[in-house]
């Protein structure tokens, strides 16, 4: 008769196998959540790219950043490829260089003027659909990882024409819509707006959004010149109140198209 001791892994058991090194997760898929019939009555399916740094691979809870790009006018062009958005703006590289790691989801938004004017994009990305999109992203990560993660903190970021999504969403928060207190949106932690306001209404929406969620950190970054910094400056001159304390404003000497390549990390810290 003998007794096998389980208190010490070296007695009665072989030594544990070395842990497998984790790899960065990169994947691209077609969303079944964000779809719409455009002005030409074509069904638009949204392509999305996901990047998960190795430190977050197989983790049960992660921080997730959504990045909404602008018009495809910055060189090199995106060519309707969300992988190129990540590559062109060095988004993954900035995440890897940040001490704090987040997963990243970049949907490709076809900013066709007629669709924007008719509100198709705004409707496709309304609060309930955005929450459903995040759940879809988490499921896609789960397919390639040991666990399907949940969101600890959500970060929403956008550049330029990304205001087509961020500004209506901001107004939804300001109206305290019930959907903003559900799902991933209830876990909103940070908002990063890169040259977003193109009108006084958009600037007001960004300020009101911050007032409606005092526990969320808002960072607004502006290029050296162009419509957004001018709109923001004029709006600030007409404001009677001071900015909410949870708003940080960064005025730069950079060009409009350079902002995502340099300042994504401000939404992570």
What report would you give on this structure?
The chain has 269 residues and is α/β, with parallel strands linked by helices. The protein has one domain: Alpha/Beta hydrolase fold, catalytic domain (Rossmann fold). The chain is 31% helix and 24% strand. The chain is built from nine helices and eight strands. Strands 1-2-4-3-5-6-7-8 form an eight-stranded mixed sheet, sandwiched between helices. Strand 1 and strand 2 form a beta hairpin. Helix 6 crosses helix 7. The N terminus is likely disordered.
**Rg estimate, integer Å:** 21 Å
Series of H and E elements: EEEHHEHHHEHEHEHEH
Cα end-to-end separation: 59 Å
Subunit arrangement of the protein: single chain
Shape annotation: globular
Number of domains: 1
CATH superfamily: Alpha/Beta hydrolase fold, catalytic domain
Provide a count of the helices.
9
The fold-level CATH name is: Rossmann fold
Strand content: 15-25%
Strand order of the largest sheet: 1-2-4-3-5-6-7-8
Averaged pLDDT, please?
Answer: 91
Roughly what percent helix?
A: 25-40%
Number of strands: 8
User: Which spans of ≥5 residues are poorly predicted at pLDDT below 50?
Assistant: 1-11
The biggest sheet amounts to: 8 strands, mixed
Indicate the structural class: alpha/beta
CATH architectural grouping: 3-Layer(aba) Sandwich
CATH class: Alpha Beta
